[in-house]
Write a structure and sequence with these properties.
The complex is a heterotrimer of chains A (275), B (290) and C (335). In chain A, helix 1 packs across helix 12, helix 4 packs across helix 9 and helix 5 packs antiparallel against helix 7. Chain A is 72% helix and 0% strand. Chain A is mostly helical. Chain B has 13 helices and two strands. A two-stranded antiparallel sheet of chain B has the order 1-2. The longest helix of chain B is centred in the N-terminal third of the chain and has 33 residues. Helix content of chain B is 74%, strand content 1%. In chain C, 26% of the residues lie in helices and 33% in strands. In chain C, a hairpin with a 3-residue loop joins strand 14 and strand 15. Classes of the chains: A mainly alpha (275), B mainly alpha (290), C alpha+beta (335). At the A-C interface, helix 8 and helix 9 of A face strand 6 and helix 2 of C.
Chain lengths: 275, 290, 335
């Protein structure tokens, strides 16, 4: 509201909002705190709030289960699928944003619809094909699949960013004597860099958190963090503190990235409908 | 603005993406279709042959299918309801003048960035566990016996977990839409004598309508395929109490190794998703700006 | 060096013909203005010459050479856009240098030419700034600088002054005219403002729905409009048109008299009417008079005219400046 709100009212809203926010954030907070507890503390009942601040869990997670390898796998598939996607998506988005045809809208909607196809619908053939090509439990195969499922989102997101580049600037550079490749290198790409960076950010987050293909197509070698954590679901002995440590490490990078990429998230996941 | 010179190039640039997506869509689907008409079980690889409609028959008449179908519906609709209503309320709350608004926002959107397997395990072990979980501790404080959530209310538990994950998404989208509402419109309404309820119903809600439809469309796409949360917490059980269509097909493919049956299930899942999609896209497509 | 010719050029978007066959010849070194109401196709015509749009048929010649299928980059024309279209990620210096960079000109020569252009346009102090740090007028000058630095065969201006405030517009008008006198290069200038057209042009092309209504010098258009459309478009305030019986007296379907050719008196005259609105500008007065049977007539007098709304006045048109039009709006040769 344009009228200045009374400080009292502001504090009332503030307290209410903070309570709600902390309630929502609580499970994450609890996990982070538990990561610093001893196992005994972790399962104490009634629960201990303040931990011992021990780092033993983080050490053990790496020692006993080679956490770093899975972290590395997550990084490879996230960044790899993003780069693969960009390779075909940037030209496609350029083409649709600057040389639209009557078909352009249809093609975009069709791309959106491919995202709606349920993964289970193709689980069987993909699994069998990968099996026969020796791509199961293989980082390259996984990267390929993730690139495919995120291609529609990446194209859409780049398309909306490209459309925001004023056409007359591109026309001006053509009048200034720039042939096509010069137009792209000297004018388009520099102006599109923020949009491309945002798209990359979003795709890295989505690929890191993907939890269907990463769970079904990998085993010990290529398992990224999603699968690694999932392997703790069988309750073979209680080691919640270690689980918390592993979880904290797994989610920390993306939490941080996510905090900085809220706007891009909105645009990317709504296919540009909400900006 | 496209001229003869640029349009040929444009088509060439677009071709790879379209071709790749096309192949990615068609080839596996065709294979799934083909397998669905075969008897093919990885545990019994010699016994293969044309199966006709029997895979579909067995899949669709199995009681697990009806349960999975119902569960899928309940899951999607419940999470949609919780996230849209909750998201609107949270959006309204975060739109108010509060101290530390930036941090509150960050806290509220965090669950969305937690990978599904971590979210599921955290809830399973630390929140819902009847012996050591937070909920158990809370209920004992009030003198009630702790509830084994995942055993007694498996689907409900999964809904809670998934709703927790997606609430931030809805909140963020709706908050963004709320903040794009023209301040002057609200002032004009105020001068016209509208109290908050009226303001909400006549001005805010219509403005949010587009964002809400987008949220529903996007969430439905992802909610139909909820998988990891079920795998990690209840494994679809007890029985099929928390199995959805996605998990059911997975079960048949990678646990029962019934390629034929799972393929039939996959085709059914695709058809169902398409029905939902056509329905949704028609309603929503008008609002989505290409 | 910079003559431009359009031979039977047409442009259609799908089934919609925006420009029916047009033939136009622009002399080297002349300042030609395309003017007309919104949607008349003037910008489209400019873009066809620039190469930013393809012709549907016809030939475009620059200096006699057929350039119809040549890409814009190779036509050696410069364009100043309505939105200026400056490169936001480059400094003013680099914006102006860009065309030379594209032409692979030697760095030291680029520096020379950029600084020369900056000097001409008073931009020397701003060379390191980014476009977003400049005012509208300054951005406009950078756009012009970018255009002149390359010495093109012709300059194309697409409503360059529309986004400026009134005072700045008048200044820039003068600057562009001076630039033309200095450079002596062909300039094609698109505007919807007939004042800009009249003050800047050597020749004016009046366009209406894609057709050329008239092509001539400003004075030709003012004194001898070819039809009712041109007569009503050129001149401000607009020419008064009278149909019906009064027009028949002069042997025409409709007649037109410019406000400045109408005498007003409180005593006697041809037509009697009542003053509706009087606009006093100090230097002129525009008086809008409602005359029975003729409608609202606008009169323009020099200096101050002491009339107020409600006054009864008499109007007399100057017989030497009555324009006659036939049923189709074509001008009938006067006397």
């Amino acid at each position: 509201m344009a009228r200045a709100v009374s400080t009292q009212k502001k504090w009332a809203w503030t307290i209410f909002a903070w309570i709600v926010a902390l309630l929502i954030f609580f499970p994450i907070l609890w996990t982070i705190l538990t990561a610093f507890k001893t196992e005994g503390e972790a399962i104490a009942f009634p629960p201990h709030i303040i931990p011992n601040w021990t780092l033993e869990n983080f050490v053990e997670v790496q020692d006993r289960s080679d956490y770093l390898k899975h972290f590395f796998n997550s990084v490879v598939i996230s960044v790899g699928s993003t780069l693969l996607c960009l390779l075909v998506a940037v030209p496609a988005a350029w083409s649709m944003a600057f040389s639209p045809t009557k078909r352009t809208r249809d093609i975009l909607m069709w791309m959106l619809s491919t995202k709606m196809m349920p993964a289970v619908g193709v689980l069987v053939p993909i699994y069998l094909i990968f099996k026969s090509l020796n791509l199961l439990d293989n980082l390259f195969g996984l990267t390929l699949i993730l690139a495919l499922i995120d291609l529609p989102i990446v194209v859409w997101m780049l398309y909306t960013y490209f459309k925001e580049i004023p056409v007359d600037i591109l026309e001006a550079c053509r009048m200034d004597g720039a042939v096509l490749w010069k137009e792209i290198v000297y004018v388009l790409l520099p102006m599109a860099v923020p949009g491309i960076a945002s798209t990359m950010l979003l795709n890295i987050i989505l690929a890191w958190n993907e939890a269907f293909w990463t769970l079904n197509l990998t085993a010990a070698q290529a398992a990224p963090l999603t699968a690694f954590i999932a392997s703790f679901s069988a309750p073979e002995g209680l080691f919640w503190a270690k689980l918390s440590a592993a979880s904290t490490l797994a989610i920390a990078p993306i939490l941080l990235l996510g905090w900085f990429s809220q706007r891009q998230l909105v645009r990317g996941l709504t296919f540009g409908a909400v900006k | 603005m496209a001229t003869r010179n640029t349009s040929k190039l444009a088509r060439a640039l677009l071709a790879p993406s379209v071709a790749i997506l096309f192949v990615w869509m068609i080839v596996p689907l065709v294979l799934t279709l083909w397998y669905s008409f075969q008897t093919y079980n990885l545990l019994n690889p010699i016994n293969t042959g044309f199966a006709g409609w029997s895979n579909y028959y067995y899949f669709l008449t199995d009681p697990s299918f009806f349960q999975a179908f119902a569960n899928t519906l309940i899951l999607v609709l419940s999470v949609l309801a919780i996230t849209v209503i909750g998201g609107t309320l949270l959006g309204l709350l975060l739109d108010q003048p509060i101290f530390g608004q930036g941090i509150v926002r960050i806290l509220v959107i965090s669950p969305f960035f937690v990978m599904p397997t971590v979210a599921a395990l955290v809830w399973k072990n630390m929140m819902l566990d009847p012996n050591y979980g937070i909920f158990a501790w809370l209920t004992t404080r009030f003198g009630i016996a702790p509830i084994p959530w995942l055993q007694d209310f498996p689907l409900f538990s999964v809904i809670i977990i998934v709703a927790w994950e997606w609430l931030p998404f809805a909140t963020l989208i709706l908050l963004t839409a709320l903040q794009s509402l023209d301040e002057e419109q609200k002032e004009a309404a105020g001068m016209d004598g509208a109290n908050f309820i009226r303001l909400f119903w006549y001005i805010i809600l219509p403005h949010l309508a587009r964002a809400i439809t987008v949220v529903i469309l996007i969430e439905t796409i992802f909610l139909l395929g909820v998988f990891a949360e079920i795998l990690v917490t209840t494994s679809g059980g007890p029985g099929y109490a928390s199995t959805n269509i996605a998990y059911l097909v997975y079960h048949q493919a990678l646990l029962d190794y019934d390629v034929g049956g799972a393929s039939a299930g996959g085709v059914v899942a695709v058809i169902l998703a398409n029905i939902v999609a056509i329905f949704l896209v028609r309603i929503v497509g008008k609002n989505l700006d290409a | 060096m910079g003559s431009i010719a359009l031979e039977n050029v047409t442009k259609s978007f799908g089934n919609h013909t925006v420009i029916p066959p047009i033939n136009l010849s622009i002399d080297d070194g002349s300042f030609v203005v395309f003017v007309g109401p919104s949607g008349c196709g003037k910008s489209t015509l400019l873009r066809l010459i620039a190469g930013l749009e393809d012709t549907t048929s016809g030939v475009i010649r620059i200096d006699g050479e057929d350039m119809t299928d040549t890409i814009p980059a190779k036509r050696q024309l410069s364009m100043v856009f309505q939105s200026y279209a400056l490169y936001p990620h480059m400094s003013v210096y680099n914006n102006i240098a860009f065309p030379l960079k594209m032409a692979n000109v030697d760095k030291s020569i680029i520096d020379q030419k950029v600084r020369a252009a900056a000097q001409t346009l008073n931009l020397t102090d701003y060379l390191d700034r980014r476009p977003r740090q400049l005012s509208g007028g300054q951005r406009q000058r950078v756009a012009i600088g970018r255009a002149i630095v390359r010495q093109p065969k012709a300059f194309l201006f697409d409503e360059p002054l529309s986004n400026l405030d009134a005072a700045l517009r008048v200044n820039m008008r003068l600057e562009i005219s001076e630039l033309h006198q200095q450079l002596k290069t062909t300039m094609i200038y698109v505007t919807h403002d007939q004042v800009e057209a009249m003050t800047m042009a050597d020749k004016i092309v009046v366009l209406n729905a894609g057709k050329i209504e008239q092509y001539g010098t400003p004075m030709e258009l003012y004194r001898s409009p070819a039809n009712r459309f041109v007569a009503g478009f050129i001149g401000s305030p607009k020419m008064n048109f009278i149909d019906g019986a009064e027009a028949a007296k002069f042997g025409a379907h409709s007649i037109g008299i410019r406000p400045e050719h109408m005498a007003i008196s409180t005593g006697q005259g041809n037509w009697q009417g009542r003053v509706q609105v009087a606009e006093h500008l100090g230097s002129d007065t525009f008086i809008h008079v409602s005359v029975d049977g003729l409608g609202l007539i606008t009169v323009r007098t020099e200096g101050e005219e002491p009339v107020k709304p409600g006054d009864m006045v008499w109007l007399t048109p100057d017989p030497a400046h009555i324009y006659r039009f036939d049923k189709a709006g074509v001008a009938l040769t006067t006397h």
